[in-house]
Specification:
This protein is mostly beta strands. The chain has one domain. About 0% of the residues lie in helices and about 40% in strands. The chain is built from no helices and 7 strands. The strands form 2 sheets. Strands 4-2-1-7 form a 4-stranded antiparallel beta sheet, with no helix packed on it. A 3-stranded antiparallel beta sheet has the order 3-6-5, with no helix packed on it. β1 and β2 form a beta hairpin. The protein is globular. The chain starts with 11 loop residues before the first strand and ends with a strand.
Length: about 80
């Protein structure tokens, strides 16, 4: 399988916790679908203290995985929103 594009898309989205609305990170997202996974190399700003855990309500919102040989966060359905 091909690795994700290093440069990546230019459009950035802000990712928030669905429960407490705390900002989690800014991410360079490609496409117009829902947020299923976040490649770590595309995260512009990270506001989390512990990986995959909301700094506000401390709920786990994702799991760390290797997707196509690249480290990524696999989002748990309904735990995050984006703008």
């Amino acid at each position: 399988m091909a690795k994700p594009n290093k440069k990546g898309p230019t459009k950035t989205v802000e990712v928030f916790c669905a429960k407490c609305k705390k900002k989690l990170f800014k991410y360079r997202k490609g496409g117009k679908g829902s947020l299923v996974k976040c490649f770590k190399e595309r995260i512009v700003e990270d506001f989390t203290v512990t990986a995959c855990q909301c700094p506000g309500c401390e709920q786990i919102f994702a799991r760390e995985q290797l997707i196509r040989g690249t480290p990524a966060y696999k989002m748990i359905g309904g735990k995050v929103t984006m703008k």
